[in-house]
Amino acid sequence: MANLNNITGALLIDATAAFLNGAGLGVQEDKNRVIPKTFKEKVNNRLEDVPYVSAQSWRRWLRDTSNEENGWNPSELRAVGEGSEKGTTNKISTELNPIEFPEDDLFGYMKAGAKGEESVQRTSPFKSSILKGIKNMRTINIDEAFVHLKEGTPLPYSTKFYSAHLEGFFNLEYYRLGVYDNLGSKQELSSDMVTKHTDKLNQSSLGVKFIRYELKNAAANRNLNAAGLLKGLAYLRGGAKQAAFGADVSPKVLILAGLESANPIFNNLFIGTGEKPILNTELLLELYNDYKDKLATPIYVGFRKGYLQNEEEIMEELKEGFVLASPVDIVNQFNKKYLTNG
Fold first, then answer.
1. Residues 19, 36: contact at Cβ < 8 Å?
2. Residue 301 in contact with residue 310, Cβ under 8 Å?
């Protein structure tokens, strides 16, 4: 069995009549129209608007949900550097403390020091795509409305919203959790942080100006933070304009697997040719066979009953090497089997 170095996966969200991530106001004649994020994609030789949620946006949902579900203290963004006492600085950072704040361990951070000051940067172990509408199952509509004044003519405004099934993929570099490299000018732990938590860290020299710090309880901490992140994924919540365009953004399909390599293999898995999304079982089986030597776990496929068009096919085709359940249940099973300490 391969080593569990990464946890990779995919998710599909039902965004029916939703507005989850705004792009501001329209231009010219649409200046009173609020618009969602879209990009252009060529479909049948014509450009089509594709609704999407930025990676930054849904990662914020995941950060907040994970903190709430696990009772973690948030690593709040705050102004830093000159002017921070007045809140006027253009520099921001989190706590920069991955030892006490799981959010910093999972999502990384950056602080550029002024001249003569120490810079700190940890690239995010959690990598993610945008959430984009799958082909043939995305429409954009306009909600026309008015603001009724006490006196005078009502003011018109409109909001573009969409109906789509939004897919995305991700990879968690599990092996990096609880491990912090200070290599030359690339410092993951500040000097103050090392001094403050000396009793919690093992230190090793891996070369000239290359020091690796690892938590003494790294294995337990790694499992705890990874399991908490997956729990956050299962119960994901957030999104813009929920009062007017409420949507449940918890995944209707969630796919997980442990991998030795850092390949986010579960992408473009969904087909939109029917009334409901179709999970491409042929592609999943191909991925299983191609990556069999690198898989550290079975492929866990979680889906809400009645959501996918080919549910019977999934149950018949995905047997050996797969675990099928609901999105929440596959996370519980995965966490219990692979991320439970002791």
1. yes
2. no
Tracing tokens 């579960």 back to the chain, one arrives at 266
Quick: pLDDT tens for 43-77. 888 999 999 999 999 999 999 999 999 999 999 88
pLDDT exceeds cutoff 90 at 117? no
Instruction: Tell me how far apart the alpha carbons of residues 112 and 40 are, in angstroms, rounded to a whole number.
Output: 35
Dist. CA 330–CA 157, nearest whole Å: 43
Q: Give CA–CA dist 72/165, Å, rounded.
A: 30
Longest dimension (CA), the chain: 74
Tell me if 323 is assigned to some domain. Answer: yes
Token pair, residue 164, equals 């789509």
Question: Residue 23 — very low, low, confident or very high, per pLDDT cuts 50/70/90?
Answer: confident
Q: Which residues pair with 48 in a beta bridge?
A: 41
Within-domain flag for 1: no
* Residues ≥6 apart with Cβ < 8 Å to 278: 270, 271, 272, 308, 309, 310
Q: Hey, what are 65's tokens?
A: 């949900």
Domain that holds residue 136: 6-338
Instruction: Using alpha carbons, select from 237, 241, 252, 249 the residue that is nearest to residue 19.
Output: 241
Provide the pairing of β-strand 33-36 with 155-172: parallel
Q: What is the pLDDT of residue 146?
A: 67
Instruction: Judge whether residue 88 has pLDDT over 70.
Output: no
Q: Of 53-57, 110-114, 312-316, which range is least confident? A: 110-114
- Tell me what the pLDDT averaged over the chain comes to: 91
Distance, CA of 250 to CA of 237 (rounded, Å): 6
How far from the centroid of its chain's Cα atoms is residue 106's Cα? 11
User: Domain count of the chain?
Assistant: 1
